[in-house]
Amino acid sequence: MSADVRIERVLPATVGAVYDAWTRPELLAQWYCPNPQLELKVDADVRVDGEFVVHMGPHVVRGTYLELEPPYRLVFSWAWDGAADDPSRVEVRLSETPEGTRLLLTHTGFATADDAANHRDGWEPELDRLISLLGAAQV
């Protein structure tokens, strides 16, 4: 198994709406956790070298925005509080399709294939929640 995560989805919204869902803290707070039972709090300073902190119940992940190309691409580091591993890297690419927006998420830099698999298991339901949010109301 690869030590990288690559997920592709087509989302029922415009590129701008999907980019907003990734960059507006009030929207991130509606979907950015795989477990809807956990309290979710997001603080994000969305600019190159800006930082974000996401509290998913007792779990905290933080990172720094490395590259931003609105509304088509964002890249950020990803590190769990208390983990000894180096930060990993997430890249989100968005492109227009007749059905809405093609999202390609690539998460790289994991220490092990198991760590990558665990993150894939987290991203999949998160992206399902994002699709539900975008389908329920245009953001």
Quick one: how many beta strands?
Answer: 7
Low-confidence stretches: none
In DSSP terms (H or I, runs of 4 or more residues), the helix count works out at 3
Radius of gyration, rounded? 14 Å
Helix content: 25-40%
The assigned structural class equals: alpha+beta
CATH C-level label? Alpha Beta
Describe the structure.
With 139 residues, the chain is α+β, with helices and mostly antiparallel strands. The chain has a single domain (5-136), classed as START domain (Alpha-D-Glucose-1,6-Bisphosphate, Chain A, domain 4, 2-Layer Sandwich), CATH 3.30.530. It contains 3 helices and 7 strands. The protein has a 7-stranded antiparallel β-sheet. Strand 2 (40-44) and strand 3 form a beta hairpin. The N and C termini lie far apart (36 Å).
Short key terms for the protein model shown above:
139 residues, alpha+beta, Alpha-D-Glucose-1,6-Bisphosphate, Chain A, domain 4, seven-stranded antiparallel sheet, 3 helices, 27% helix
Explain the layout of strands and helices:
Blueprint: E1 5-11, H1 15-23, H2 25-28, E2 40-44, E3 51-56, E4 59-69, E5 73-80, E6 88-97, E7 100-108, H3 113-136
Antiparallel strand pairs: 1-7, 2-3, 3-4, 4-5, 5-6, 6-7
Write a brief structural summary.
This protein is of the alpha+beta class and 139 residues long. It contains 3 helices and 7 strands; from the N terminus they run βααββββββα.
